[in-house]
Amino acid sequence: MAFKPANNIQDLQYFGEFGGVNPSISDSSTYTFLSAKTMFDTFEGNADGCYLYSRHSTPSNLYLGQALAAMEGTETANVTASGMGAITAVLMQLCGAGEHIVSSRTIYGGTYAFLKNFTPRFNIETSFVDITKLDVVEAAITPKTKVLYCESVSNPLLEVADIAGLSKLAKKHNLKLVVDNTFSPLSISPTQLGADIVIHSLTKFINGSSDTVGGVVCGTQEFIDDLRNVNDGACMLLGSTMDSLRAASILKNLRTLHIRMQQHSYNGNYLAERFEKDGLKTVYPGLASHPSNELFKSMMNEKYGFGGMLTVDVGSLDKANALMELMQKRNLGYLAVSLGFYKTLFSAPGSSTSSEIPADEQKEMGLSDGLIRFSIGLDADIERTYTMMHACMKELEILK
Ligand code: PLP
């Protein structure tokens, strides 16, 4: 299939039911059949183009899935009710009792909790490793391993996975490489680098308006059919289905993703450079000081930049909290979790989005108390934002 990134989303053409320029929304949970035989064939998965029941699929969800598959360069995609709905379904589909996953240790706290606390109930074990060290990753693979799991750019430490290197390992050991690309849509195209399955939390940059949760699994037709199978498909049976109205609204937002990502990246890069010059401990994949700056450059679709996520370590949780409260008071963003909004969002991951990770493990992976995660917004005047943030830091004596 030809690769068609979302910046070419204008190439997708829709004619709604009445000639509308947006596809018509299918506002139904169930579908009629003219013949009982077609209904039976649909259950069996043998009636292409027929809809059965909306937990299985809907026209609106298929439109969104097609657009996201076009963005990631996969054969097809299945949208889900949340990012976690996508992650849990994929991992439960790929692994059964007695099997094993090798995962990056720096991943979203919810994914970490699922692998650490939930899947062991089904006798699925996970080894958490430093994903930036391919020899360590390979050493963790056992005959029971089925999946290599990572985030292209990790939450919250912004570690960068060498997707091509991991893909080689996955092929060598006959594993599936599953990549959560939530932090770097458009900037990184994991399947072009050898990933088998790409997941997004649509809740973040892709939808971009912080009004819904959503997720997607991008992969081969065969794998997506497996997920939707009425007899043993994890998406069908675990039931994390997206609502059609939401699918329609996310599709409309997706069309501006390429413009938004350029602005998020521009602003992120600007602030990261300024903060670093000020002497703050700043992590941003676009900085030469980032240990994987060169790797990111070798993987990226340059036009979309290094993304809108950066972290700054201000030394202690008290200082981090004081700074976030002051920045919110000055209308520089919101003290809120999540990312990809038009306003800057900031939170201290150690006590919020990564609090599922025990304190000693946080420490070992370098997640310090004073770390603030920023999702930089679409500010039109980022220089003014910087000046105001700088003033807050001076006032709190974070900067001398
Ligand atoms: N993946 C990453 C990298 C995330 O940051 C998150 C949420 O913060 C998720 C997955 C989960 O997505 P959702 O909240 O849509 O279930």
Q: Would you give an account of this structure?
A:
The protein has 14 helices and 12 strands. The chain is α/β, with parallel strands linked by helices and 400 residues long. Strand 2, helix 4 and strand 3 form a beta-alpha-beta unit. The longest helix has 21 residues. The site of pyridoxal-5'-phosphate has 15 residues, from helix 3.
Q: What CATH architecture of the largest domain would you give?
A: 3-Layer(aba) Sandwich
Q: Let me know the number of strands.
A: 12
Ranges where pLDDT stays below 50 over 5 or more residues in a row are none
**What is the tally of helical segments?**
14
Helix content: 25-40%
Q: Provide the succession of SSEs.
A: HHEHEHEHEHEEEHHHHEHEHEEHEH
Name of the CATH class of the largest domain: Alpha Beta
Gross morphology is globular
In spatial order, strands of the major sheet run: 1-7-6-5-4-2-3
CATH level-4 homologous superfamily of the largest domain: Type I PLP-dependent aspartate aminotransferase-like (Major domain)
How much of the polypeptide forms β-strand, as a percent range? Answer: 5-15%
> Rounded to an integer, what's the Rg over CA atoms?
21 Å
User: What is the straight-line distance between the termini?
Assistant: 55 Å
Describe the sheet with the most strands: 7 strands, mixed
Q: Number of folding domains?
A: 2
- Ligand names: pyridoxal-5'-phosphate
Secondary-structure-derived class:
alpha/beta
Mean pLDDT: 94
